[in-house]
Write a structure and sequence with these properties.
Layout: H1 2-12, H2 15-58, H3 63-78, H4 80-112, H5 124-151, H6 154-176, H7 182-191, H8 193-207, H9 216-232, H10 241-244
């Protein structure tokens, strides 16, 4: 697994990957800025008008609870762009990865597995759907652990573990679906859940590093291409016929 991570890191800055890297970084910057500002605006609205609206909806009995929630949200709104950018990065990289999955995988497969049959590009709609689903799940986790992050360091640990599971799952399935039907790819992920979660920890650690995490889609996808190959084991049917006849 460590070898796969090293290979992915070294290939990130290779000449064939640089164009994808810069496009990925540019798109991630645009998306993270838009979403972080949007989150800050949403939290600011809730800290003012939202509290009154919810109290009218739920009744006066919720006044104290909503005041506490409003106070938490006010703090979150003040830090929205900064912390929102940090916590939303896994969601952003999921979206970006779904756009570049085949570009990255093609380069990794050509360089490291030239004798094996290349994967089949995923339908664009399917890749985007997988990215959107993971992004939405990540945002839900972010909102769920936000109070814990504000009051205790445990929230950061919970978010890190959740990010490892979500990102490991998405990147592995994207890599596997180039060779397998979606249901088979998901079944393979479930059968190797512990290994893929551990690999997800590498990606979660990478996405936790400011600035560097903009390259997460490249690292995560390249890393999971290697992991899928290793978990697939020896597959003679993938070797080119010309090689088999030698």
């Amino acid at each position: 697994m460590l070898d796969a991570a090293v290979k992915a890191l070294s290939q990130m800055i290779s000449p064939p990957m640089r164009s994808i890297l810069w496009r990925s970084i540019g798109l991630a910057l645009v998306l993270i800025t838009v979403l972080a500002i949007g989150l800050q605006r949403l939290l600011s609205w809730f800290a003012t008008s939202g509290e009154v609206w919810l109290e009218g909806l739920l009744g006066p009995g919720w006044h104290s609870s909503l005041e506490v929630l409003s106070w938490i949200v006010s703090i979150a709104a003040g830090l929205g762009v900064v912390f929102g950018g940090i916590f939303l990065m896994p969601a952003i990289t999921s979206l970006v990865a779904s756009l570049f999955v085949d570009d990255v995988a093609d380069i990794v497969e050509r360089e490291h597995y030239p004798a094996e049959r290349p994967g089949v590009a995923l339908p664009f709609s399917q890749a985007i759907l997988e990215g959107v689903k993971t992004a939405l799940l990540t945002i839900l986790v972010y909102l769920a652990v936000l109070p814990l992050v504000l009051f205790a360091g445990a929230g950061f640990l919970i978010f890190f573990i959740a990010a490892a599971w979500l990102l490991g799952r998405e990147y592995f399935e994207l890599a596997a679906m180039r060779f397998r039907p979606p249901e088979e790819a998901k079944a393979m992920r479930r059968d190797n859940a512990a290994t893929i979660f551990t690999a997800g920890l590498f990606i979660a650690a990478f996405v936790s590093i400011p600035i560097v995490n903009l390259a997460t889609p490249i690292f995560g996808m390249a890393f999971m291409v290697h992991m899928h190959k290793r978990l697939s084991g020896s597959r003679p049917e993938l070797i080119e016929p010309a090689r088999q006849m030698r």
